[in-house]
Amino acid sequence: MRTLISLLVANAIAFSGSVYANENDAQKIADLKQQLEEITNEIDDLNDRVDQNERHTALDRIELTGDFRTKAHSLHYRNVTWNPAIKVNFNDFGAKAMAGDFGMPNDPNSPLGKMMAADPNLAAAFQSGQLQGVMPYVLAQKTTQDIDNDILYTTRLRLNLKAKVWDNVSFAGRLSMYKNWGDSTGVQVFDSWRSFTMDGTNSGNTSGDWLRVERAYFDWKNINGSPLYLSIGRRPSTYGPPTQYRENEKRGGTPSGHLVNFNFDGATLGYKLGELTGVEGQVVRICYGQGFESQWGNGEMFGDIVTKDTHLGGFNIDAINDGRNFLQFTLFGAKDVNDGFKGTMAFPTQLAGIFAPTMYQDMQKFSNFNFETRVQPSGVIGDMFLGGIGFAREEDNDVKWFVSGGWTRAEGNGNAGMFGGMLSDAVFEAQLNADGSEIIMMAANAEDSDPKDGYGVYVGVQIPAPYGKVGFEYNYGSEYWTPFTQAQDDPIGSKLATRGHVGEAYYMFDINPRMFIKLAGLYYDYEYTGSGTPVGAPQDIDEVIAGTAYSMLPVVDTAFDINASVTVNF
Prior knowledge:
Layout: H1 2-22, H2 26-60, E1 63-83, E2 85-89, H3 90-98, H4 111-118, H5 120-127, E3 134-138, E4 143-166, E5 169-180, E6 197-198, E7 212-220, E8 228-234, H6 244-247, E9 265-271, H7 274-277, E10 283-292, E11 310-321, E12 325-338, E13 343-346, H8 349-355, H9 357-363, E14 372-375, E15 380-394, E16 400-412, E17 426-432, E18 439-446, E19 452-465, E20 468-477, E21 500-512, E22 515-526, H10 541-546, E23 551-555, E24 558-569
Parallel strand pairs: 2-17
Antiparallel strand pairs: 1-4, 1-23, 1-24, 2-3, 4-5, 5-7, 6-13, 7-8, 8-9, 9-10, 10-11, 11-12, 12-15, 13-14, 15-16, 16-19, 17-18, 19-20, 20-21, 21-22, 22-24
Helix pairs in contact: 1-2, 4-5, 8-9
């Protein structure tokens, strides 16, 4: 616009100058130039104001807010035990061996002869007839140690995006960066299920100095003038009630944070029932989502797809939400749960020594190298159902308290992968590899497919204190407790997924309304293995430490996290 006006003014000056020059009236030319210069200045000023208004109007369409948190942890693990073994059907193994499927045991070049030579204890037990039925096949010597990470710094940046699309349509999103200081590899060594980088947990696992789309969705409210609304996109399914109290923020997600802290894509159809019943904040929601895509990117064209899409569906009801009292009911299910997700990890050298001996020979030459691999599940292991009820109240004296109960149910179908079936161990059977030169153990089925119910409780209180507030929380999970809270950003692991006890205490110091310091401590007392995953049978921690139970991944007896953080909201 400024360029066009400048060209018109310049042409006017040139034209006028030529006319008056012919009249030989230099004074009038000077006067006209002065007037045009004044007009140009006024137009430039007007143009600047118009540009500012246009820019302000454009920026008003997107509201940008966020928070920045720096946190220092001191992490301590006690009785970390690795006692790996698989359960093998030795009746099947013996039958195949006696039939000569694996060659002769006294032939050092046969697959059976090689296996017996490599494991004399196995050979002795086999020859004495001690290997019968389904028994553990120990893969490595048990180790137990304490581990201390005296200082771990993390930085979390979250950018919130909001835009009013129309009178009853809006968009919301959140971009997140979460990283350790001095680390942007984005891939962790696979020593626990929480270190498995995947779509649903990326926002709660430290990765690197890049932004991820934690949530992005639109809300279409008051459809056709009714209390009905529709929302589609990457769901606000993290930091739900009542976990917002320990985060010192408003309600961050829709579903119960006791049951769900997991990113997924889907849709919600809601109805503001309170407009009919008169109960403030009463909302009924029907939710649908997809937790796993089985075919795209999984080698579909080779015809070796053995997994299925995982679909989620259920109900979420805010029965009361009046600013003081909050009562919520949740019930949903996951159909066709697989024994894992698409993701990336650094392959552990220890597992290479067990499962990839040829590769391990080369890996020993580069002891500080791990190769990065993209993994995918091996099959469908069953269905899951989750339900819960939560109540929170904020008193007149600013005391806030809550209580939440949860239930999970796993229904296995008898299938199993390398790490097990639905809350059941895998039973392995021996077979020859592709060229017939080696005996390998492959998961054949789950040890059992009986339904398994778990439960969890979560209680807490937050009390005003000098310069801020103090809080205390406790949660417990039973042997088969399996919520979807793996994206919770506790570095030891989601405290609400723990099969055992967790206690937390914190003190929050309010620096100003947009900045606070938090000092906290968490103590984990695990009772069973496998917290946070439906794959594999939970084992009693004490029995693993004693050597009478086994686990493919290291297990932790107790752990504590002492941390301090500063958070700035902007």
